[in-house]
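Notebook entry, structure prediction.
Reason for the run: the old model in the group folder had no record of what sequence produced it. Starting over properly, with the input documented here first.
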Amino acid sequence: MDIHEEALTKHELLLQYIEGLKIGSKISVRKLAKELHVSEGTAYRAVKEAENIGYVMTKDRIGTIRVDKASRRHMSEQLTYEEVVKIVGGHVLGGSKGLVKPLHKYVIGAMELEDMIGYIDAGSLLIVGNRESAHRLALKQGAGILITGGFDASREVKLIADALDLPIISSKHDTFTVATLINRAIYDRLIKKKIMLIEDIVSLDAKVNALKAQSTIRDFQLMRDTTGQSRFPVIDEWNHVIGMITSKDISGLSPDSTIDKHYTRSPITVSMSTSLASAAHMMAWEGIEVLPIVDRNRKLISTASRKQVLQALRDAQKLPQLGETFDDLIWSHFEEDRDDSNRLFFRGVITPQMSSHIGTLSKGVFSTIVTQAAYRAIRDLPRGDHVVENMTVYFLRPVPIEKEIVVRVEMIEVSRRFCKLDVKVSQDDQIVCKAMVTAQAFDGA
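New structure, fully documented this time:
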């Protein structure tokens, strides 16, 4: 049964219509309502939903237009002028037609004009104060301008920017703050690109196999034999997911019996924006082999198997690290070593940034260090795909900043589904923290 052939609501028809419009098309709520014979209120809600999804964008003095929704698979690491405006809380002084252009380089104009020429080229952004000569030079070189300190640009410079479609942006922040904001935004984009979501592993073009409550055991058996799968979503007449049915649920039943009284109701579902780590945790915690994937209206659009999720997570771990999260920044201060008995341990110095308001190691950072050490020790196991399920921490002594600590991890118990670890943190040969960590294997059925 192909669920994509089911009927759609007016709201979904509107979204489908908007998605099918040519990129760059202008969208009017009144025209939309008239063409699809719906109320203006219904059309307005669909347009707002399309804006949230990324199908359309509302621009000043232009209106609502159809835009290309960027795929995460092809997400660029480069920011556009328009994104920079939002990041620095700025406003556009000129060249607004070029806001969609991407940027590949950022230049701080803290030098003489003749020295700037070697750094500024097309596609770059000059970050500078109220230096009109620098503004003119940047535009001549094909670069946009970000004026810091809240200063304005001259009328002549604005006219040149409009003619060349090169944006001039003004921000109230100083140069250091602006550079920091842009740098953080670039790192955030790199981090988000590395975090894999359900949408990265499924294809919406593939046929989705599902059964209805009125389907018979024979229908299940035929679908199982055809697909080689043993678990299927159960949907209603509107394609809403209402349950899951497995081979175990129908064991011993007559082929002519319906499945309406035998499927598991209210199953756990995920959306396309659910992270693979969250999906893997659900599967491990609940013992789930297949997760139905639903849209905003809880309609079935695809499924994800445990094998798919785990393989994608393993592949992601092989990719180079992009960007730095707080966990990365904290753990980067530690190095691993082995003692004479070849037992793994970690050592690192507590920096001022890791301190609490009273000047000792923050308990939150303490917990991160313990968790990262446990994960590193778990990776040495034959089945290293685990998620921390429980952690009990005992803070025995405060740790002052700029002191070295040593973290030792001892594996207490390892089974097919769980492992338990004892983590000891010491400073000057005195134990300052102890923790008991329990982790569950992703693929431990």
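Summary: The longest helix spans residues 175-194.
The old model has been moved to the deprecated folder.
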